[in-house]
């Protein structure tokens, strides 16, 4: 069972609809979002995506990188496949997140969908609100807050396009 992983990349952008830039540290503000990110204050305060999900897209778009799906936190070694709305996550020393949405509709003009005919965000993206804010850094641990069972599944993008 995979109970923890790590923050692989952190990404923010000043404008909605633009690619996010990778940075080493962000400040999460309780019930608001990431300081300096265009989506702060929206119903989708923060987004997460497992880096392992990039594998299927990378076959056709080798230059794809964290932040290109507009996710804020790209994780590594952490399994979201059993996540449910309401589950709680701990990140770093004291940040607490509550999962509010799993997946989202892909924009018709998403350059990834246009290039490869698929997008992983609708199936594997996770959105959360910030219950307890604070700084997080690349390399911080991410884990389930409680000990309820989250069955381990393979951490791959799985399948072909």
Provide an overview of this structure.
The protein has 161 residues and is mainly beta. It has a single domain, classed as PK beta-barrel domain-like (M1 Pyruvate Kinase, Domain 3, Beta Barrel), CATH 2.40.33.20. The protein is built from three helices and eleven strands; from the N terminus they run βββββαβββααβββ. It has helices at residues 54-58, 111-116, 121-124, and strands spanning 4-12, 21-23, 25-29, 33-34, 46-50, 73-76, 88-91, 95-102, 126-132, 134-137, 141-144. Residues 150-161 have low confidence and may be disordered.
Q: What tags apply to this protein structure?
A:
seven-stranded mixed barrel, three-stranded antiparallel beta sheet, 161 residues, 11 strands, globular, 9% helix, single chain, 3 helices, mainly beta, M1 Pyruvate Kinase, Domain 3, disordered C terminus
Short précis:
The protein has 161 residues and is mainly β.
